[in-house]
Write a structure and sequence with these properties.
The chain has about 270 residues and is mainly β. It has one helix and 16 strands. Strand 4 and strand 5 form a beta hairpin.
Amino acid sequence: MRYSFIIAILGYIVLLQSCKQEHIPGPVPRPPSVKPVLLKDITIPNLPSPYYHCEYNTDSLVTRAEFSSGLTSYNVLYSGKQIKEMRNNVFVNQDTLRYVYDNTGKVALIKFIDAENTVYRHVSFLYNGSQIKEIEWDHKEAGVGFLIDRTLTFTYYPDGNVKTITEIRPAFANLPEHHSVKTFDQYDSKINVDDFSLIHDGIHDHLFLGVRLQKGNPKKERLEVNGVDLYTIDYVYSYNNDNTPATKKGDFLYLSGPNAGQRFQTNAVYTYY
């Protein structure tokens, strides 16, 4: 009996030890790496092509950005991973856009500097937490100083996507004050790659990068100008396997003015590296 008891105890110890060995946790597997989204071109029929173009370095940071088939073309310089400068290098314009950050790392100010090293324009940013609350543009007026010529204010949905962009441009020369409200609705849960275009006045001003306003893609857009509903656009997207947009088709409807009731189709094509 004594030997049987000892053998039983030894068997139990061996069994316990083998169980411990079987349950030793192995190394924690690394999560799968996520491929960065590297937008290459946005092409819009009947507009200079590509309308927007980006190039990147090995760290997936934009090093070159172009608008309207090279109408403006920027070399993007960094301090760490923060944009330090965007330098326009087209023949007729050698402006530098120099970034200033607040103590939390958010863009606070962008200085527009001409080829003679004169600051002639500022873009300043106000925040509500991490969200942009207001962007204000000013320009240098001889004998007066800097005058505000454009202000954008933003509201957001609870999910962080921008809901409205209100734009005010003061009266200038013979032009009255301009007031508009652009509203976005029905966002998808995919990846947005073109929200930088929402604040870019391609006709009159420089493109700049480094701010985010949308996470997803809105399926509806409406514009009101000086209190009058001007248009609505209903968007339909197709997507790539990584949830980036491949195409964006819009059904544009004029709501007022001489073209009220008329529709036309918009289209944008996105390509990636």
